[in-house]
Design brief:
- The chain contains five helices and no strands.
- The chain is mainly α.
- It has one domain.
- Helix 4 runs antiparallel to helix 5.
Length: 152
Amino acid sequence: MKEILKRISISFAISSFAGLIVNLVIDLTANLAGNPGFISISPAFKDLFPTPVLAAYLNILLYGVIGATFSGMTFVFEIRRLGFIVQWCIYFLITFALCLFITIFLWELHKIPQAMVSTLSGYAITYIIMAIVQYRRLRNDVDEINKSLNEG
């Protein structure tokens, strides 16, 4: 449990920081390109808060929540009695539900098609990376078991 909490905390921090840097680069680029006052937050999300700055801070925290969820849910891959497909389905369903909730209901990106496509693409890339990493771990475990059976 301690290791999972550590993983969640680190992922939260990294995701929040990465989100901050990405938003900063986008905002600076847009402002330098002649769009003064641009903030890379959906207008609907920004309207939920009294100031755009507060919306920006909470947006960065949401990046952290997404990263923490992706990382924290990896504990499901450590439940050995579940098959890989079942583990993957549980991981996908829980993380995707949270991501869709944030993306559609909080950020309301479905109103901004380009943002929706890029965000869902980012999720898809994350799922592909996670699938490859977990599949390789599973293959290594199977190879070790087969090696020990062949030696015994």
